[in-house]
């Protein structure tokens, strides 16, 4: 493990703690937020080349901007949906809540690490080397973790 692994684990842990506290308000909102944040992260990955090439928006701005905009819209939409379709899973609330929070943390860590690569990668080759030696960070950035969970899901054109 190197410093990238600790950064990634710290991001995941921070999101998990935040979401578990927020889950006390509404489990349904955490579920909808997680689903929509996964969609925002997926869309940001797919939109990056399009935004960068077609509109000449710098890569860091295109990636972070698309995730922030889509993620923000997703959080607003999740709040609205959870007011209409509120539910509680009962006794398994904390187990499912932890799993959802963990997935949300993986998405946020993926976006943050990929943004760091976009910004620092060309200027700081030692960062790329550290990422290649990283176990957890490398899996997150290249979505290897998700490929193993659901083959074919990550490779959607």
Report on this structure:
The structure is a single chain. This protein has 157 residues and is mainly alpha-helical. 79% of the residues lie in helices and 0% in strands. It is built from seven helices and no strands. Helix 1 crosses helix 4, helix 2 (27-55) runs parallel beside helix 4 and helix 3 (59-84) runs antiparallel to helix 4 (93-120). The longest helix is centred in the first third of the chain and has 29 residues, at 27-55. The relative contact order is 0.17. The mean pLDDT is 80.
Sequence stretches where pLDDT stays below 50 over 5 or more residues = none
Determine the N-to-C terminus distance.
32 Å
- Multimerization status: single chain
**How much strand content do the residues show?**
under 5%
Notable traits:
single chain, 157 residues, mainly alpha, flat
Summarize the structure.
The protein is mainly α. It contains seven helices and no strands.
How are the secondary structure elements laid out?
Layout: H1 3-22, H2 27-55, H3 59-84, H4 93-120, H5 125-133, H6 136-141, H7 144-149
Helix pairs in contact: 1-4, 2-3, 2-4, 3-4
